[in-house]
Design brief:
Its cofactor is L-ascorbate; Fe(2+). Pathway: Amine and polyamine biosynthesis; carnitine biosynthesis. Keywords: Carnitine biosynthesis, Dioxygenase, Iron, Metal-binding, Oxidoreductase. By secondary structure, the protein is α+β, with helices and mostly antiparallel strands. The protein has two domains: about 130 residues, 2-Layer Sandwich (NE0471 N-terminal domain-like), CATH 3.30.2020.30; about 280 residues, 4-Layer Sandwich (Double-stranded beta-helix), CATH 3.60.130.10. It contains 13 helices and 19 strands. Strand 3 and strand 4 form a beta hairpin. The longest helix has 17 residues.
C-alpha cells in the first residue's frame, strides 16, 4: 500500500508523452506521389505497446516507486542524490565516486521527479542545479525499503553437502581443460564457490604443474611456509601437519586476522606405508545442524571470539588482531546466513575472555559443534592419489587427515579469497556479455558498484 505520508503523485513525464504524440503524428502523415500510394496498400505493422511505467510519489524525505499493486520501494532524497551515476558524479572508467557526499545538504529536495522510459529522472534544486537518471531495474535491485535482493548468479547459491551428497555428485574438472579454456576455468571456479571444494584430475605430479594450475586462479599467497610449499612428516616447521599423526577436521590460519581463502593440496607420492586418507567436512552443513538442534550453542559460536596462535617456529609467533580472536561462525547481518567458518581446536590459545557466566555454556557449545562435526554422515573420507589436486574453500570446508606410515609428500599453496572471487566475477562478466570489451560489459549500473 502507498505510504500515508507520501502525497504528491508524479505521473509519467509530460515530455515523454509529448514525444509519443509526436511519433504518432509522423506515422500518420500523408504520403506524396506514386511510391506513397503503393506504400499505403501495404499493411501497417502493429506497434509494440509502450511498457507501463511505475507511478511515483514524493514527500519531504523520500521518493516512493510503485512497482505493482502490492510492491513499493522508498528511497530517501539524500540516498538518491548520493547515488547519481552521471559522469560528473561517478567516473565512467574507474568506477569511482567523484561526488563529495558531504556537500549534499542533509535536507536536499528534488525540484522535479519524472517517470520516463529510461528510468526515474530527478532534477535537484540545491546546492547547484543537477539532473540525475536512475534505471528502473537498478532501483528495484537496490531497494532497501523494503530490502530486495538482486538475482544472483548460480555460483552464489551454495550447495550444502553431507557425506551422501558429495559421494554421489563429487565436483570434478579436468586439468587440461582448465589450463586451456576460460569457459572450463569458469566452471571450475564456480564449482569451488558452490561446493567449497573441487577436484582436478590429470595434473602432472610435480610442484611446477601444481603451481601453474594455482596461478590460473590468481596470485599465490605467501606465508611463513613460503609460496608453493612441499612437505612431509619431517617437522620442517613446528606444525602437526609436518608429522604423521591424525589431524581432526579444521580450517587453516585461525591465527591470522585474514585467513587464506583457498587451499590447494596435491599428493605427489605415498610409498612404503598406509593410511593418510583425507577428511573433508562442509562447515555450512555443520553450522546448519547446530543451529537446528542447539540454537543456544549456535548463538554462542557466532558471538564468542576464540583466541588462536601459531608458535611452533622460533622465528614466528602469530596471533590474530585483536588477540581475543574471532567467533567460530561469522553470520551475514543482512541475510542471517553463515558465510565464514573458523575452527581449529589444536591451535586454540588460553580462553580467558569469555564471561564467567558463559564459560560452561561456551564449552557445551563447542561440544555440540564437535558432535555435529564428527558425525559419520558429515564426514567425507577420500584417499588422495598423485595427479589429482583438491582445492578447498578454507573459510568454509574443514579438512583433516588420518594417521599414516611410510613416506607421504604433498605440495600446495594458499590463495586469497578476494583474488579468487575477483577472477570468478570477471569470468562471469565475460560469459554474460560475450565479446564486449570491459568498459561495455561493466558499466556504471553494474551489480556490486
Amino acid at each position: 500500500m502507498w505510504g500515508s505520508s507520501l502525497s504528491t503523485v508524479v505521473r509519467p513525464a509530460a515530455r515523454h508523452q509529448a514525444y509519443l504524440g509526436r511519433r504518432a503524428y509522423i506515422a500518420t502523415k500523408p504520403f506524396q506521389g506514386a511510391a506513397a500510394a503503393l506504400a499505403l496498400r501495404k499493411p501497417i505493422p502493429a506497434q509494440e505497446p509502450e511498457p507501463e511505467l511505475p507511478l511515483t510519489e514524493v514527500d519531504g524525505r523520500r521518493v516512493a516507486v510503485q512497482w505493482s499493486s502490492d510492491l513499493q520501494s522508498r528511497f530517501h532524497h539524500i540516498w538518491l542524490r548520493d547515488h547519481c551515476r552521471c559522469s560528473e558524479c561517478f567516473h565512467p572508467i574507474t568506477k569511482q565516486r567523484m561526488l563529495d557526499t558531504f556537500s549534499i545538504p542533509a535536507d536536499i529536495q528534488p525540484r522535479a521527479v519524472d517517470a520516463t522510459g529510461e528510468g526515474l529522472v530527478i532534477q535537484w534544486a540545491s546546492p547547484h542545479e543537477h539532473t540525475s537518471l536512475y534505471p528502473w531495474s537498478w532501483l528495484k535491485n537496490n531497494s532497501y525499503d523494503p530490502q530486495q535482493f538482486a538475482p544472483k548468479p548460480d555460483w552464489q547459491k551454495p550447495i550444502i553437502w553431507d557425506n551422501r551428497t558429495i559421494r554421489t555428485r563429487t565436483p570434478t574438472v579436468e586439468y587440461y581443460d582448465v589450463m586451456e579454456n576460460d569457459d572450463a576455468l569458469y566452471d571450475w571456479l564456480a564449482k569451488i564457490k558452490k561446493w567449497g571444494v573441487c577436484f582436478v584430475r590429470g595434473v602432472p605430479a610435480d610442484l611446477n604443474s601444481t603451481e601453474a594450475l594455482a596461478r590460473r586462479i590468481s596470485f599465490i599467497r605467501e606465508t611463513q611456509y613460503g609460496k608453493m610449499w612441499s612437505f612431509t612428516s619431517d617437522l620442517a616447521h613446528g606444525d602437526t601437519a609436518y608429522t604423521n599423526i591424525a589431524l581432526p577436521a579444521h580450517t587453516d590460519n585461525t591465527y591470522f586476522t585474514d585467513p587464506a581463502g583457498l587451499q590447494i593440496f596435491h599428493l605427489l607420492e605415498h610409498t612404503g606405508g598406509t593410511g593418510g586418507e583425507t577428511l573433508l567436512v562442509d562447515g555450512l552443513h555443520v553450522a546448519r545442524e547446530v543451529r537446528r538442534r542447539y540454537p543456544r550453542s549456535f548463538e554462542l559460536l557466532s558471538q564468542v571470539p576464540i583466541p588462536c596462535h601459531a608458535a611452533g617456529d622460533e622465528d614466528t609467533f602469530y596471533r590474530p588482531d585483536p588477540n581475543s580472536g574471532y567467533p567460530v561462525l561469522s553470520v551475514d547481518a543482512s541475510t542471517g546466513e553463515v558465510w565464514h567458518v573458523r575452527w581449529n581446536n589444536n591451535d586454540r590459545s588460553v580462553v580467558n575472555a569469555v564471561h564467567p557466566d558463559l564459560m560452561e555454556a561456551w564449552y557445551q557449545a563447542i561440544r555440540d559443534w564437535n558432535r555435529c562435526l564428527t558425525e559419520p554422515s558429515a564426514e567425507y573420507w577420500v584417499k588422495l592419489q598423485p595427479r589429482t589436486v583438491v582445492v578447498i574453500d578454507n573459510q568454509r570446508v574443514m579438512h583433516g587427515r588420518a594417521e599414516f606410515t611410510g613416506r607421504r609428500q604433498l605440495c600446495g599453496a594458499y590463495m586469497g579469497k578476494d583474488d579468487f572471487m575477483s577472477r570468478l566475477r570477471v569470468l562471469w562478466e565475460k560469459g554474460e556479455a560475450g565479446a564486449l570489451d570491459v568498459h561495455e560489459r561493466r558499466n556504471v549500473w553494474s551489480p556490486g558498484l
